[in-house]
Amino acid sequence: MNGDKIVACDVVRYDLRQNIFVADKKFVSVEKCFEIRVNGQPFKKIFCSPEDMEDLVVGLLAQAEKIPAAENISRSEVKFSAEKILNCADKLLGELSTTHGKTNGVHSGILFDGEKILLHREDIGRHNVFDKIFGAAIRQKIFLGDKMIIFSGRCSSEMILKIFRMKIPVVVAKSVPTTHAINLAKNFGITLAGRLTADSFCIYSNPERIVLS
Q1: Taking the C-alpha atoms of 191, 84, 126 and 39 in order, what is their torsion angle to the nearest 10 degrees?
Q2: Does residue 37 sit within a domain?
Q3: Confidence bin at 1 (pLDDT 50/70/90)
């Protein structure tokens, strides 16, 4: 099930330069509530953007170990070019994030194989972005043990736990991770990077997977 991601909303906008209130219209992100049922029994209610719902449900069920996660058995010792990561991140934070550009109200993430973007998903919830990518990868039978996620938000410890269950070796986030996220990433052998800008990023754990071109 997919639906409208954004709608126009009537607002009253304050203009400092003219010191006036102006009637205006702005786009806002749509939020919907859905209930997931497993074998006819209620499993979970989720609030999300109403698109890529099949991916979201499959990802959530796989995270909860209600369904198998295909052939994602282990992480490989893959290497990613630092320069190519920045080039890919520029697309994520620019041309791909169309909904965010209109509303400034969604998170965005991509699955990257070191050369090309395999998946792109957006949602009002940052957890949902990871679940949608996970679900899409399972449905499309994409092996995740040699892939990377680049994410528009911040990686907390909960996000690292999701990455661990997905068996993804590298995650790069726009914002700065938390201390607990860094510690978990170190313990789980996950390469965690953050503080992403147009020309730099910082690696907080297991840096050996990111190399110079």
Answers
A1: -80
A2: no
A3: very low
